[in-house]
Amino acid sequence: MIRIALLGCGRIGKMHAATIVRSSKAELAAVYDPVSAAAKEVGRQFGCVVAVSAEEAIAQAAAVLIATSTPTHADLIEASAKAGKAIFCEKPIDLSLARVKACRAALKGFNRPIQIGFNRRYDPGHRAARDAARSGEIGDIRQVIITSRDPGLASREYLKASGGIFKDMTIHDFDLARFMLGEEPVEVFATGSALIDPTLAELNDIDSAMVVLRTESGKLCHINNSRAAIYGHDQRVEILGSNGMLISGNRRAHGLERFGPTATGAAEPFLNFFIERYAEAYALGLESFIDCVETNATPDATFEDGEKSLALAEAANLSRVGRRFVNIREIVG
Amino acid sequence: MIRIALLGCGRIGKMHAATIVRSSKAELAAVYDPVSAAAKEVGRQFGCVVAVSAEEAIAQAAAVLIATSTPTHADLIEASAKAGKAIFCEKPIDLSLARVKACRAALKGFNRPIQIGFNRRYDPGHRAARDAARSGEIGDIRQVIITSRDPGLASREYLKASGGIFKDMTIHDFDLARFMLGEEPVEVFATGSALIDPTLAELNDIDSAMVVLRTESGKLCHINNSRAAIYGHDQRVEILGSNGMLISGNRRAHGLERFGPTATGAAEPFLNFFIERYAEAYALGLESFIDCVETNATPDATFEDGEKSLALAEAANLSRVGRRFVNIREIVG
Amino acid sequence: MIRIALLGCGRIGKMHAATIVRSSKAELAAVYDPVSAAAKEVGRQFGCVVAVSAEEAIAQAAAVLIATSTPTHADLIEASAKAGKAIFCEKPIDLSLARVKACRAALKGFNRPIQIGFNRRYDPGHRAARDAARSGEIGDIRQVIITSRDPGLASREYLKASGGIFKDMTIHDFDLARFMLGEEPVEVFATGSALIDPTLAELNDIDSAMVVLRTESGKLCHINNSRAAIYGHDQRVEILGSNGMLISGNRRAHGLERFGPTATGAAEPFLNFFIERYAEAYALGLESFIDCVETNATPDATFEDGEKSLALAEAANLSRVGRRFVNIREIVG
Amino acid sequence: MIRIALLGCGRIGKMHAATIVRSSKAELAAVYDPVSAAAKEVGRQFGCVVAVSAEEAIAQAAAVLIATSTPTHADLIEASAKAGKAIFCEKPIDLSLARVKACRAALKGFNRPIQIGFNRRYDPGHRAARDAARSGEIGDIRQVIITSRDPGLASREYLKASGGIFKDMTIHDFDLARFMLGEEPVEVFATGSALIDPTLAELNDIDSAMVVLRTESGKLCHINNSRAAIYGHDQRVEILGSNGMLISGNRRAHGLERFGPTATGAAEPFLNFFIERYAEAYALGLESFIDCVETNATPDATFEDGEKSLALAEAANLSRVGRRFVNIREIVG
What we know:
The structure is a homotetramer. Chain A is built from 13 helices and 15 strands. The first copy, chain A, has helices at about 10-20, 35-45, 55-60, 70-80, 95-105, 125-135, 155-160, 165-170, 170-180, 275, 280-295, 305-320, 330; strands spanning about 1-5, 25-30, 50, 65, 85-90, 115, 140-150, 185-195, 210-215, 220-225, 235-240, 245-250, 255-260, 265, 325. The model of chain A has no long low-confidence stretch (mean pLDDT about 95). Strand 12 of chain B pairs antiparallel with strand 13 (about 255-260) of chain D, so a sheet runs across the interface.
């Protein structure tokens, strides 16, 4: 049994707590949240120690799951690493690429597993698509199309702290693009609009985005995002190869279809929201992390993956402003 | 160019006229209908001779297409055969199996093609299913499930003359069952109810039916019929084999799907009615007939097929009344 | 927390144990199995008491889950009832309708919940179909079509003890038919063949079956079964009404589709077998039982449901031998 | 009956000839092709006059269908207009925007219908999607995604004369984008690669392209193209609105699906190529043109539509080279 300390007891922290408790290989050693009421609630629900500081929580476990607010991630990664604990950190590592680089420098010599919360890599459909592509089933990969739309606009408060759509939302798709392409994107084009809530322009943010990526060898990737798809959490990945195409599509709660005078084959709305849509992915991602902790193996979603997706998000920001294709070397030097 | 005489200018006769005219290998030589206004309308529309008698029409052609009312079919088959013409006759040959047997006797020595209008055999999806099954793709055939539902109840007048659901509607499915099974059904069970229009009981008829067939080797087939499926003309054929399953499904006018807050993947109603659903089948069936006429080959849907399906319909009637499995030998002797 | 005693630690018993342990409202109080090694294994895995007799296990709990071999069900129901415990019993109650009637008599005065393991009633898709039908969404129900096929033939040993296909496998579909029709079937026709393994005829059993049911008001239901569908556990329910149709279809592990030169839209095989296909149903069925235990409410799948489905299975056996429509009153008197 | 002169008897000319002949409202008055053998073949097949010059063909008809090679389109439009004939011209009008502008100037005062061969506007699925979007069914339009892939790379000879992917292939998608968006794109980003045939780089052409368009109000559109999709002619249009999404999907020859041990729901490859996929669209487009000729109405796909799509293609070329968002005003002045 791997003893895990959970830092952060908000929506996603609670979900992780439940996942840990359900796992047969892990136990929830301690929880901490700067809002002590939140920590106490999770502690009571799952019957575990409620620590009074992150350090105290970290001390009681073999691995640390960081689900606190983004600005604290890098510090907590460093603290956990210093304590020699395996680390699972929610995305993004930080909103600043410079801070991420500094964190990487601080991790030098750290030799325990560190996994970033790119849950979609563990979704059975997405994973099967990627495995089929890697196996050569569709020949040479030529294009990847990622459709990624949330069911509804988050609160203003959330959006203000989010770092903008590319670092908050598209970052998942940048990671998925890299996962599917099997080759690093070197050029980034991004544009978008505030179509759902035009006042988002006040935050210099957008709610509808389109991105094009290009790798060194010329493979192409398109990502489209919307903060509000009324029909559910729309999560599709398509890979076009020289010998075929793969599509990992949306999921519904069940398989009922309705047939009437005006429509046939009408099925349920898509699972909504990420906690439902990616429930299996969260569980499988945690299991994979635990396996890495047990064997000291490298996770599928590494610190470097977190850093590279953030670099793509920074390139997207630069592209949107500059209205041009941005070479990733302008960002990463 | 095969010159075809069309006998019968009602709904289905008109459809056949248009199909003949569109064919590059046939021409409409003459039309006849006891209601002369109907014949004149078709003659005017397609610019062909309007005969004053069936005999006159038959005389002008190399092949005769019989689309008159059912009670005249057998007489017109005999008249056409006597004149040495190839014959395409709409189903059923007659409502009386005795009359059909007499007709068969009268055809003795006739050596030109005679095709019965079992259009579904020529539907590309159904045909592909049957060809795949015949090729061994799904191994040994074990079960066939046929769903066959009309979009709405026909007029009382039509139903009164129809011969009852098994001879009028299910007869297509009996033929399709034989086509798919690749083996003769030897036992028939049938039941049903007047659920759409309870007053159909006055005609000793039903509008909702379920049938089970069993072949000598034990293969099973289920047919379900309804006279009123509000979502379109529901036409499905399923074949279960030892190595897989084939389903030839419904067709829609186009591929639009709608996604909204209460339903996703909502597509168009099914094509409605048989003239739309089986448009390709009618054209392909006519082309196949023309090829048979040209080469004096045996059509895919023969007189014997018409007779055997009628025998199954009679067995179904006997089964419904007797509430028991009826052996086909009780009918055909 | 409802304390549950589990009797029977075979494949399905283990699955129930895991479901109980995952529930936040129940705990596994004790387990018992005549094969003590099996009970010990479950006891060790889930950390619960291993009782030396059924009585000892029953005594430690508020509710009893009976997952032993079929011949012991009725005795254990009676023992649990005598001890005043709520009861969840796997299907069938017994292979003999007489024994079931005797058990019912013995339960007279027992006023705790008793639920039969008709898990399919709790499947989200099937349940949504039935709820939509009950709500009037598709108007008057006219036909129900149930396709129910196992992925592969069970062992000879299993089949010998099974009571035959109608009592072992179709019994689930009889229950589902009653659940969907909303009206009791009064007539039963059944036939079938040993197509997968012809030597099954030695057991007077079949592996491929077709059934037709008819209710008093004339509603029709078809069930088809196969013991071996190579493409997965095929579980479909279709309801045709005057105003539309509902289909609760099959489930796949994930939403990947493949597109290549010979096929498009090729998805995963269906979930296989019942433990995977009905995983949610088992969990929801247990939750529903626990709710009933807490509030002393009547479960959705009652003892009477178990008895009525068994009566339909006996009618099916009589029909298959007699090759005729059997009125249920011939069975239930 | 509208008498139509067909100029150009290559692959697409022959297809138009067959469509004209099948129409009940039009007849093929004359055909002309600089390769007289091609004209004679069509003339013989359809029994019409074979003209020795374009002028001679034009003189014999009320309407002219121009399906010659692209460099002759503008001249033939001007000649037809001078003769006062209604005009149907295949896309593109010309590869040079300057030539198109000159042609427009030459058409000043011409008041007969002129329709450009943007067949996809007449596809029933695409049309139904656009009509639903226009009707407000999905609220405000926010994004359009167009996937448009040919089944296989055309010949080198064809590609050399094609004007490059954006003017030859994407031009259809630019037109469809404008048709769906209901608002003019003002900014264009385009990139691509020669992934299928790297030697295409010698022609300064690509075979894999991604485009992003942005309208004045911020609506976004993505187009992806490939010259070789092994699974068929992939033609999808998706419209995301504030109240839902519409997808007009691919079409298959029939509705057979296969279920086996490794895949379920495997359907036919997509219809391949445009003549099959858009057969209905070609027929409906011609019918629509004939209706416009009869009533002197403005077609759905006008000369201006042809010009605007060409301007978008030029902008795409500029964007690809400049690696930046190009404002359409840089092109159209």
